[in-house]
Amino acid sequence: SFADIITSIRYWVIHSITIPSLFIAGWLFVSTGLAYDVFGSPRPNEYFTESQQGIPLITGRFEPLEKQNEFSRRSQ
Questions:
Q1: Using an 8 Å Cβ cutoff, are 38 and 13 in contact?
Q2: What is the distance between the alpha carbons of residues 60 and 5, in angstroms, rounded to a whole number?
Q3: Separation of alpha carbons 23 and 25, rounded Å
Q4: In this structure, is the dihedral angle defined by the CA atoms of residues 43, 45, 51 and 52, taken in order, positive or negative?
Q5: Is the C-alpha dihedral spanning 71, 76, 38, 33 positive or negative?
Q6: S-S: 56 plus which of 11, 36, 38, 71, CB 3.0-4.6 Å?
Q7: Cβ–Cβ under 8 Å, residues 74 and 49
Q8: First-to-final CA distance of the chain
Q9: CA distances (Å), origin 9, targets 13, 19, 20, 39
Q10: Which residues cross the membrane (predicted)?
Q11: What domains, with CATH codes, occur in the chain?
């Protein structure tokens, strides 16, 4: 039963090692920047370029592709 599992010494020995290990591994994965590299997301200092410090907002209804191409040309 569930009570037998929770009161088992073996359960607490196993989980007292695995739960902190998973927490530390996740913290290292994010803090070293490896998560940015693995998932390809920009780092906090890479969201905006020197030339563009605002959000690339597409306001035109009829030419969104041209606006998107303009934003991508500016960011390169």
A1: no
A2: 61
A3: 5
A4: positive
A5: negative
A6: 71
A7: yes
A8: 61
A9: 6, 15, 17, 39
A10: 12-36
A11: 1-41 (1.20.5.860), 47-76 (no CATH)
The number of angstroms, rounded, from the C-alpha of 40 to the middle of its chain's C-alpha atoms is: 9
For residues 29 and 45, what is the distance between their CA atoms, to the nearest angstrom?
18
pLDDT of 76 reads 62
Q: Report which of 44, 47, 57, 42 is spatially closest to residue 70, judged by C-alpha positions.
A: 57
pLDDT in tens, the chain (76 residues): 889 988 999 999 999 999 999 999 999 999 999 999 999 988 888 877 777 777 777 777 788 888 888 877 776 6
